[in-house]
Design brief:
The chain has 6 helices and 5 strands. By secondary structure, it is of the alpha+beta class. Strand 4 and strand 5 form a beta hairpin.
Length: 162
């Protein structure tokens, strides 16, 4: 179970986001909607552990997964809990890999997944999102919609809890 309690996030510029209590079950897909400037991205960054570990800002309240608090976790362990798709897929492509297959495998390489398992997970995720035919293409040669699918597939292959 993923839960937030009374989250209040302040950036150096202003108060960005306030929530009461949110609960999500493992494997759920969640959308955060609202008008421009409402704090949707800030909330998602906080849930993913980027605030305050990566982005400057103050956060009060609690974000937890199965009783573990984000404030007591390091970013490198917390990010395995939450998959986050950025608004612009171009910002999510690492630029470190030459093919779509390698790009999708990049996160798995970073956490030391064995090569045989990595290959199967990437193939399965690409099949799920319908991009298997793009495996040998450069991520930068793709259309915006195809890049969105690559970004989403890169998240799904990691098997985040949320």
């Amino acid at each position: 179970m993923f839960k937030t309690s009374r989250i209040n996030i302040r950036s150096p510029k202003s108060r960005c986001c306030k929530t009461s209590v949110c609960r999500f079950q493992e494997g759920e897909f969640v959308s955060v909607i609202g008008p421009n400037g409402a704090g949707k991205s800030t909330l998602c960054y906080a849930l993913a552990g980027f605030v305050p570990h990566f982005f400057k800002g103050e956060i009060s309240g609690e974000i937890e997964v199965d009783g573990k608090l984000s404030s007591k976790s390091t970013l490198d362990t917390w990010v395995l809990n939450v998959g986050l798709a950025f608004q612009n897929p171009f910002n999510q492509i690492s630029g470190a890999k030459y093919t779509v297959f390698e790009e999708i495998a990049f996160g798995l390489e970073n956490i030391g997944v064995p090569r045989d398992e990595m290959k199967k997970r990437v193939e399965d995720a690409m099949s799920l999102t319908g991009i298997s035919e793009l495996a040998d293409r450069s991520p930068y040669s793709l259309s915006g919609g195809q890049q969105q699918r690559v970004a989403l597939t890169s998240i799904l292959v990691m098997r985040p809890r949320l």
